[in-house]
Amino acid sequence: MNDRYFIFGAGYSGRAIAREALVRGADVHGTTRSPGKADELRASGVTAHLFDGSELSPEAVDALEATTHLVVSIAPGDADPVLATMRQFIAEQTPALRWIGYLSTVGVYGDHDGAWVDEDSELRPMAQRSQERLEAESAWLALGTERGVPVAVLRLSGIYGPGRNALASLANGTARRIIRQGQVFNRIHVDDIAGAALCLGDAAKGDIFNISDDEPSPPQDLLVYAARLMGVEPPPEVAFQELEMSPMARSFWGECKRVSNARIKRTGYRFRYPDYRVALDQLWQSGEWRGR
């Protein structure tokens, strides 16, 4: 029997995982809230199911029952909607299940004043959304233990790729070259999220993994490099202190850390885009910066 991937939340990252799984010959099912996006998923080869966080259709339940690889890419909010609706079913009625992947965030580490963090570092989630992610991580790990199935928690850095990148931001006029002394961020290309997920899924490997590039770097460096590729001037520098930001954006900028990806590399995974320069070069040369 072919592998069956069931992806709760087949959005930007989930669709990348779906593409990778389809290329490898898997049967792929995915959920979305939108009928329009469901049509897009079907056109790409994914069997789409509508899921608003409260109920799965009988067809989706049947598909879940025969799933070998379960991927969860839905933000938890007050509670994880998949666990709230399907926990007992997953625990008791998924005989083929071999692996669960949960997409989380490096935001669970909070602020470390620019120091390096790995999967064993102290967790200091500052934002409510990061605290919710941490609670969901624990709940999925507990379900894996109960079910006897390995759970891989993928803690993702800032996601970019086709259609979501500095080149696109420069082109549409939304790029801001914000300067904050000492600030660095890690990033991750969406195709490396997919590659890492399939690597872990193929090996049925569980643990917590940072899925992050090799080079934490100041955000303004990314824009300057993208502008050079495009042959345009980067936007003017703006001091962080002078900006008006939403509470969510300000909390994001209030955290600074350097994220180690050594553990996922020890599994044998090799990043396709180990730094932003390799990724932006490919996006620009291929034209995929506009989207796929």
Walkthrough of the structure:
The protein is built from 11 helices and 13 strands. With 292 residues, it is α/β, with parallel strands linked by helices. The protein has a domain at 4-162 and 186-215 and 259-272: NAD(P)-binding Rossmann-like Domain (Rossmann fold). The strands form 4 sheets. A 7-stranded parallel β-sheet has the order 3-2-1-4-5-7-11, sandwiched between helices. A two-stranded parallel sheet has the order 6-13. Helix 2 links the parallel strand 2 and strand 3. The chain is globular, with a radius of gyration of 19 Å. The two termini are 31 Å apart. The model has no long low-confidence stretch (mean pLDDT 96).
Quaternary class: single chain
Structural class: alpha/beta
What is the helical fraction, as a range of percent? 40-55%
CATH homology-level superfamily of the domain at 4-162 and 186-215 and 259-272: NAD(P)-binding Rossmann-like Domain
Radius of gyration: 19 Å
Overall CATH architecture of the domain at 4-162 and 186-215 and 259-272:
3-Layer(aba) Sandwich
According to CATH, the fold-level topology of the domain at 4-162 and 186-215 and 259-272 is Rossmann fold
